[in-house]
Design brief:
The protein is α+β, with helices and mostly antiparallel strands. The protein is built from 11 helices and 15 strands.
């Protein structure tokens, strides 16, 4: 594994509000730099001490995916370092297969050196509306209205089950049109509170750091799956049953829900978890995060046993995996997920990386039975 991080943001502003940024740059560094110029990146993960190249290699999802899709949907072109040391620019028009399989492709065909990204206007102030729910099934019922798209949607959304409680957060950016947006009083659940927040990505990052500090010396195993609405509802009902099992519930640290708007770009990246065909208006992601003490051998065994059960149910509901997590994938399951695009990937991998130098232990490589 190569850890290659910059000490400060390495970027260059381009025309049309684009930015060219080194993949070594941390998202938090880039956001601070963009904010100084009155710009912002559309989607951030909750934890900002991740590199640009790192999250683009898995997809990149955040609370603003409800409006903007995934991070990879904001990429116009990439500069890739191939295994033989050569460098190529790639985009939908130039070296298109390298572009398609580099984004959300787990770094299998090249190392992202530079990315050209779209930006949006910077909005410093937001308001968040926090709601409580009886369980995950009640959460799904309460957001069903969003499928109809008859009312304006909020600017961002997430929900989480943690410590036995299910809460959701809807956010609105404060701007000239904020009063024309989604009306929080129409939301059919239990309002817990309203809070003004400055610089939401950094506010959320601080909470994530606090959560991580709650459980030092713990092993974490996670998986995220993306669904259409019907699959999402059934999967949350399954998880409601799972967390009622007293043998299992102590090891499920959190269940995290996000919504993703389908964009014109969504279908072009074969390994994107949001690349449903046909594309629904909204895609729903559910992350199940297990946590167990390093010295709890029984708990470790239980946690590892949970993942295959969750995967089996998710795949039965036609869920797509967010490939950075813990999965048991073989050639059959990969072909079921990605069809002919998986064979195209294998051919490209053999062409650009015949010696399998890049991420040789990744399941996409091993399941493809490529020569060592």
């Amino acid at each position: 594994m190569i850890v290659n991080l910059a000490e400060q943001a390495q970027y260059k502003l381009l025309d049309d509000h684009r930015v060219e940024v080194s993949a070594r740059t941390l998202w938090g560094q880039l956001e601070i730099a963009l904010n100084r110029h009155g710009r912002a990146f559309p989607i951030h993960t909750d934890y900002l001490n991740l590199s640009v190249g790192g999250t683009l290699s898995v997809g990149g999802i955040g609370v603003r995916s409800l409006v903007h899709g995934l991070q990879i949907d904001q990429v116009e072109k990439l500069r890739l370092i191939l295994p033989d040391g050569s460098v190529r620019w790639c985009s939908p028009e130039e070296n298109a297969n390298l572009f398609r399989f580099s984004l959300a492709g787990l770094g299998q065909v090249g190392i992202i050196e530079t990315a050209v990204l779209r930006t949006i206007p910077y909005r410093k102030q937001s308001r968040i509306y926090m709601y409580g729910h009886r369980n995950l099934t009640a959460l799904a019922e309460s957001i069903a209205w969003m499928q109809e798209r008859k009312r304006p949607l909020p600017d961002f959304f997430h929900a989480v089950r943690m410590h036995g409680q299910v809460t959701s957060v809807f956010g609105l950016d404060d701007d000239d049109k904020s009063q024309e947006k989604w009306k929080p009083e129409a939301y059919p659940e239990f309002l817990l509170g309203v809070q003004p927040v400055a610089d939401f990505p950094f506010w959320s990052h601080a909470i994530q750091e606090q959560w991580l500090q709650e459980q030092p010396n713990h092993m974490r195993i996670w998986s995220d799956y993306f669904f259409d609405f019907e699959g999402f509802v059934d999967f949350l009902a399954f998880l409601d049953t799972l967390v009622r099992d007293r043998r299992v519930s102590p090891y499920i640290w959190a269940i995290y829900v996000l919504m993703i708007r389908s964009t014109e770009e969504s279908g072009q990246f074969p390994f994107s978890p949001a690349a449903f065909q046909p594309a629904p208006p909204l895609v729903y992601s559910v992350g199940v995060y297990g946590s167990v003490s390093e010295i709890d051998m029984e708990g470790k065994a239980m946690t590892k046993d949970i993942c295959p059960r969750i995967q089996e149910k998710a795949f039965a509901l036609h869920g797509r995996p967010y490939l950075h997590g813990s999965y048991q994938l073989n050639r059959e399951s990969l072909l079921a997920l990605y069809g002919r695009e998986y064979e195209t990937f294998l051919a490209l991998k053999r062409q650009v990386d015949p010696s399998s130098l890049l991420n040789a232990n990744i399941h996409l490589h091993r399941a493809g039975l490529l020569p060592a």
